[in-house]
Amino acid sequence: MGRVQPKRNLGQHFLKDTGIAEKIALSLTGEGYNSVLEIGPGMGILTGYLMERGFPDFRVIEIDNESVYYLQTHFPELKNIMRGDFLSMDLDDYFPEKVAIIGNFPYNISTQILFKALKHRDKVVEIAGMFQKEVAERICAGPGSKTYGILSVLLQAFYSTEYLFTVSEHVFSPPPKVKSGVIRLIRNDVKNLDCDEILFFRVVKACFNQRRKTLRNSVRAAFELKQENYHEFGLRPEQLSVDQFVQMTRWIDENRVISE
């Protein structure tokens, strides 16, 4: 079937390799949820394969009017096409139960998509899809890696992450300047961190915003402390695991000076 390409927006590059599209669609485990939301389906190259999987509640959300019209025309059996912006939608209004999200995510909002999912982490129990390779590697990197950073720690605190495969830039229209990576994130068993979670986010961001400095210098710049003798302050942020960041957050919470 010939497909007229909708206009491109949001920095999106449309996948044209059906084999890779099928592989991405199959990357969802389908375990622990009945609802699946595809973000930014565009011409629907993933959509058809996701429909074939027979999820009880499958929906797509698309911001581009031409893409919505295309999907309505070419996928008449797809009843749940939502017109709008995922970043603005209230997930609780549409998904009372657990949901998985998937997509060939637009590069320029992919991090925002992840942070929204993280905010709704008890609702979004699985995430699968394609990101810029550098971002995908950063999400899945472990301590000691040069790519280990804010995204790694914050997401791995609540999700198990897996880098699945790399995608060449030549299978897109238009071809991006970088390769892509397909990853899967599955909600782990952590209900709540053993620390102040808002402070945990602040600590992680403060440390990696000055990643060349030792933790002592990064923490000192962000918080006024009663003492500075924490045993791991001589390390750099990429050397700490998620659990070590949790422990350090608890220590900072106990030793910071809070202004009235």
Q: Would you summarize the structure shown here?
A:
The protein has helices spanning 18-25, 47-52, 65-74, 91-94, 110-119, 133-140, 150-156, 197-208, 215-222, 242-255, and strands spanning 14-15, 35-39, 57-62, 81-83, 99-104, 124-132, 159-167, 172-173, 180-187. It has 260 residues and is of the alpha/beta class.
State the helix count.
10
**How widely separated are the two ends?**
66 Å
Question: Sheet bearing the most strands, described?
Answer: 7 strands, mixed
- The overall pLDDT average reads 92
Strand order of the largest sheet: 4-3-2-5-6-9-7
Description:
The protein is elongated, with a radius of gyration of 20 Å. The N and C termini lie far apart (66 Å). The chain has 2 domains: 14-187, Vaccinia Virus protein VP39 (Rossmann fold); 197-255, Orthogonal Bundle (Helicase, Ruva Protein, domain 3). The strands form 2 sheets. Strands 4-3-2-5-6-9-7 form a 7-stranded mixed sheet, with helices on both faces. The chain has helices spanning 18-25, 47-52, 65-74, 91-94, 110-119, 133-140, 150-156, 197-208, 215-222, 242-255, and strands at 14-15, 35-39, 57-62, 81-83, 99-104, 124-132, 159-167, 172-173, 180-187. With 260 residues, it is α/β, with parallel strands linked by helices. The chain has 10 helices and 9 strands. Helix 8 (197-208) packs across helix 9 (215-222) and helix 8 crosses helix 10. The chain is 33% helix and 19% strand.
